Amino acid sequence: MIQTESYLRAADNSGAKVLRVIRVLGGFHKSVGTVGDVVVCSVREAIPHTDIKKGQVVKAVIVRTKKEIRRKDGSHIRFDENAAVLIDKNNMPVGTRVFGPIAREVREAGYTKIASLAQEVW
């Protein structure tokens, strides 16, 4: 469950390292997001000499959460950290690599390019 002011780790090679959530997109008064949701974030830490700068406002897709996700078959999945992948205005990933595992729900939410770049889909 990701909400405003939550910190996320950037799970791609876009140049951002740490993100802070400004807003969870997807509906009137939507306050929490989970895997597959789009959030508006501010870059809190960035790698030097890249296109992404500290303080820049970006959109990202949540790919991992510490809070468990319940699946339709009754199983649960959870990760060690909260992480997101930066996207552009066409909902395509900014980076060319995605680090770490991502949840299957990301592909089901329509982000097949992110799922294909990931090392592992759980």
From TrEMBL:
Keyword Thylakoid: no
Pfam families: Ribosomal_L14
One GO term (biological process): translation
Keywords, comma-separated and alphabetical: Ribonucleoprotein, Ribosomal protein, RNA-binding, rRNA-binding
GO MF annotations in UniProt: large ribosomal subunit rRNA binding; structural constituent of ribosome
SMART domains hit by this protein: Ribosomal_L14
CDD domains to which the protein is assigned, alphabetical: Ribosomal_uL14
InterPro entries assigned: Ribosomal_uL14, Ribosomal_uL14_bac-type, Ribosomal_uL14_CS, Ribosomal_uL14_sf
A GO CC term assigned to this protein in UniProt: cytosolic large ribosomal subunit
Subunit comment: Part of the 50S ribosomal subunit. Forms a cluster with proteins L3 and L19. In the 70S ribosome, L14 and L19 interact and together make contacts with the 16S rRNA in bridges B5 and B8.
Similarity comment: Belongs to the universal ribosomal protein uL14 family.
Role summary: Binds to 23S rRNA. Forms part of two intersubunit bridges in the 70S ribosome.
PANTHER family the UniProt entry points to: 50S/60S RIBOSOMAL PROTEIN L14/L23 (PTHR11761), LARGE RIBOSOMAL SUBUNIT PROTEIN UL14M (PTHR11761:SF3)
Name of the protein in question: Large ribosomal subunit protein uL14
